[in-house]
């Protein structure tokens, strides 16, 4: 997509894999539980889960592995996965967020931009508190206030609504292909990093969040 000359008023950040490295903890938790159940799981499958809700993620894992589970088995799988994942989260501290990330958020706020988180995770507020990032955000739209997961645009539309900013003046920052597609569906520009950047669907590809300082002026 061609970058347009937009004066962004707000930036909506994905959480896992963008603000914090919890995407690796999602991978480790799924891997541990799939290994226990002898269900094939690798990083390629893991990339398909980026931006996708916990429940949908399990459906993707099972369908890729051609495994059928009862509803009760799925429920206990999901509860165990979240318990393992939460153990990783409990170890997190403000040290888990680099100075460059904090400086970028501070600069954007100093420029008068509104900042929000737009994540499918139901652990969003817990993670933000663990790493001490809450104070940077005017709004948090997450897995607890949406009914449809990315690539549906709901999470970003709700974030823009909470901020009171028109969709076209928001920039989304994403590491998931599902998130880039969600931004597109919300008529928002998108800066992609990591896995999402490799798919070349976004308005901008960035290597690090600090590159936003040259985009959001
Ligand atoms: C997204 C992650 O941010 O949140 C997905 O990219 C994850 O991998 C989803 O499945 C749901 O997270 P949680 O914390 O509610 O299990
Ligand atoms: Mg992500």
Report what the structure shows:
This protein has 217 residues and is of the alpha/beta class. The protein folds into 2 domains: 131 residues, 3-Layer(aba) Sandwich (Rossmann fold), CATH 3.40.50; 67 residues, DNA polymerase, domain 1 (Orthogonal Bundle), CATH 1.10.150. The protein contains 9 helices and 6 strands. The chain has a 6-stranded parallel sheet with strand order 3-2-1-4-5-6. α8 links the parallel β4 and β5. α1 packs across α4. The longest helix is centred in the middle third of the chain and has 20 residues. The radius of gyration is 17 Å and the shape is globular. The mean pLDDT is 96. Magnesium ion binds next to loops. The site of 6-O-phosphono-beta-D-glucopyranose (BG6) has 18 residues, from α3.
Strands of the widest sheet, in order across it, are: 3-2-1-4-5-6
The total count of strands amounts to 6
Overall residue-averaged pLDDT value: 96
The CATH class of the largest domain, by name, is Alpha Beta
In CATH, the architecture of the largest domain is 3-Layer(aba) Sandwich
CATH topology of the largest domain: Rossmann fold
CATH superfamily of the largest domain: HAD superfamily/HAD-like
- Helix amount: 40-55%
Q: What series of H and E elements makes up the topology? A: EHHHHHEHEHEHEHE
How far is the N terminus from the C terminus? Answer: 20 Å
| Total number of distinct structural domains | 2
Bound molecules: 6-O-phosphono-beta-D-glucopyranose, magnesium ion
Derived structural class: alpha/beta
Cα-based radius of gyration, to the nearest Å: 17 Å
């Amino acid at each position: 997509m061609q970058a347009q000359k937009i004066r962004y008023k707000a930036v909506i950040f994905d959480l896992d894999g963008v603000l914090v490295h919890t995407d690796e903890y999602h991978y480790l938790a799924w891997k541990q539980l799939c290994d226990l159940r002898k269900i094939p799981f690798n990083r390629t499958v893991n990339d398909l889960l980026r931006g996708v809700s916990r429940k949908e993620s399990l459906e993707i894992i099972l369908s890729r592995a051609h495994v059928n589970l009862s509803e009760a088995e799925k429920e206990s799988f999901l509860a165990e996965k979240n318990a393992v994942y939460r153990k990783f989260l409990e170890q997190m501290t403000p040290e888990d967020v680099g100075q460059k990330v904090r400086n970028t958020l501070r600069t954007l706020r100093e420029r008068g931009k509104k900042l929000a988180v737009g994540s499918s995770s139901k652990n969003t507020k817990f993670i933000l508190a663990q790493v001490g990032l809450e104070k940077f955000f005017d709004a948090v739209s997450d897995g607890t206030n949406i009914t449809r997961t990315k690539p549906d645009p709901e999470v970003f539309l709700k974030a823009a609504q909470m901020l009171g900013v028109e969709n076209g003046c928001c920039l989304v920052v994403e590491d998931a292909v599902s998130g880039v597609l969600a931004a597109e569906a919300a008529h928002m520009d998108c800066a992609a990093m990591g896995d999402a950047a490799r798919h070349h669907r976004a308005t901008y590809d960035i290597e690090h969040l600090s590159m936003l300082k040259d985009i959001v002026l």
